């Protein structure tokens, strides 16, 4: 039965820790967002769009 207690504690800790890890990862990903006005955003969107290939 000691194995059950250890397993239960491990699952409990993972369940409590996982939301904090996810929150940290999401906040780190969105920390350095670039703010653009409409004209700059359209220019960036056009640069990301591959040119049409005739066909």
From TrEMBL:
Source lineage: Archaea, Methanobacteriati, Methanobacteriota, Stenosarchaea group, Halobacteria
Protein name: Cytochrome oxidase maturation protein, cbb3-type
Chain spans, region Disordered: 33-55
Species for this entry: Salinirubrum litoreum
InterPro entries recorded: DUF8143
Membrane spanning residue stretches: 6-26
Biased composition (Basic and acidic residues): 35-49
Keyword terms: Membrane, Transmembrane, Transmembrane helix
